[in-house]
Design a protein that fits this description.
- This protein is of the alpha/beta class and 389 residues long.
- Helix 1 packs antiparallel against helix 9, helix 3 runs parallel beside helix 9 and helix 4 packs parallel to helix 5.
- Bound molecules: pyridoxal-5'-phosphate.
Length: 389
């Protein structure tokens, strides 16, 4: 059975080109780039080459890219750096729908005595800009707003927020883990001070990320130790993964336009056909302003985990916002913040595509998924009621 992988917001397949470039640095070229000898020291150039490729994807300068171990570390570092750099300020603004890498870190800071405002979203998952403007005060040390949501795919108005914050000289961080490589981003034009990205969402390996830090932004390291990354992130460099991230960024930069068109056409076909073929289905989130690869759909009167289990039998991989599959006791915080009814949250499925998906795969899902939904509805007492009507 072939795997039909539609869970690319969870993680992605490593690009073969990136993997090939990594291999020598996992085998023969195992030196430490901090060493005096050429065997190790020469590896430094490979790190800088990768840094150039990452910088090029988002329009940054070389010295504005700090390699980290993942998106989570980039997010934690950004918030921690801001609060360490401006100790007299105690108010943090973020949103109710951030990834736990920001959301839970903000809650951690709240427990340490910071005041944290979590900005709400509307039923389309769009940020409440009135609430945002009202929350701003002279005590704000950092604003962290994600570029695009991992569950709904909804894109936030980062440029607009950044312009407001630039005027007020407030540090602005965006978690762009889901946006980098999927949307064109140019930090020369985008008014952000810090931006997080992660390798495994863009066909690089897991366990590598980067933080963009605009020149002139005050910075305080989170991981403290050796002098690596210009003293901004200690720890012996994960060279192979850094090289993999560099290559993945180069591929993304080269193909982004083509891929956005390709992936969004497949996503739209999947969404449209499932809506035609399955009654009582809805799309969660703003359909105009969202990631090209993501659709979050709710199939009423069925459980998300049941859909996933049945889909799994056909090799189809997706995610659900219902409680058991989200790894917590609560159903999706993001969908709840959007006011999605509980019955719809329980039947929510996120399909997230990548350049490696084919039209044939999408056609297979279009054929199988309505059958699964129909069978499950027939089994469920609630679904049966609905069908009778
Ligand atoms: N931020 C967002 C929006 C994400 O989707 C993720 C991963 O799912 C992260 C941060 C965390 O990235 P990582 O898994 O590299 O720590």
């Amino acid at each position: 059975m072939n795997t039909i992988y539609l869970d690319n917001n969870a993680t992605t397949k490593i690009a073969p080109e990136a993997f090939d470039e990594m291999i020598p640095y996992l085998t023969d070229l195992y030196g430490n780039p901090s060493s005096m000898h050429t065997f190790g020291g020469s590896l430094h150039n490979k790190i800088e080459e990768a840094r150039e490729r990452v910088a090029a994807l988002i329009g940054a300068e070389l010295d504005e890219i700090i390699f980290t171990s993942c998106g989570t570390e980039s997010d934690n570092t950004a918030l921690m750096s801001a609060v360490e750099s401006y100790p007299q300020k105690r108010h943090i603004i973020t949103t109710r729908v951030e990834h736990p890498a920001v959301f839970n870190f903000a809650k951690h800071l709240a427990r340490k005595g910071f005041r944290v405002t979590f900005i709400p979203v509307d039923s389309f998952g769009r940020l409440d800009m009135d609430a945002f403007s009202k929350a701003l005060d002279d005590d704000v040390v950092v604003v962290s707003v994600m570029y695009a949501n991992n569950e709904s795919g909804v894109i936030f108005p980062i440029e607009e927020i950044g312009e407001i914050l630039k005027e007020r000289k407030i540090i602005f961080h965006t978690d762009a883990v889901q946006a980098v490589g999927k949307l064109p981003i140019d930090v020369k034009k985008l008014p952000v001070d810090m931006l997080s990205l992660s390798g495994h969402k863009i066909h690089a390996p897991k366990g590598i990320g980067a933080l963009y830090l605009r020149r002139g932004t005050r910075f305080y390291p989170y991981i403290i130790g050796g002098h690596q990354e210009n003293g901004r992130r200690a720890g012996t460099e994960n060279i192979a993964s850094i090289i993999g991230l560099g290559k993945a960024c180069e591929l993304a930069a080269k193909n982004i336009k083509k891929e956005v068109a390709y992936v969004s056409a497949l996503r739209d076909k999947l969404e449209k056909r499932l809506m035609e073929l399955c009654p009582d289905v809805r799309v969660n989130g703003d359909r105009e302003n969202r990631l090209p690869n993501t659709t979050n759909m709710s199939f009423e009167y069925v459980e998300g985990e049941a859909i996933l289990l049945r889909s799994n039998e056909y090799g189809i991989c997706a995610s659900s916002g219902s409680a058991c599959t989200s790894g917590s006791l609560e159903p999706s915080r993001v969908l709840r913040a959007m006011g999605v009814p509980f019955t719809a949250i329980h039947g929510s499925i996120r399909f997230s595509l990548s350049r490696y998906n084919t039209e044939e795969e999408i056609d297979t899902v279009i054929e199988i998924m309505p059958k699964i939904i129909k069978q499950l509805r027939e089994l469920s007492p609630f679904g049966k009621e609905k069908i009778k009507k």
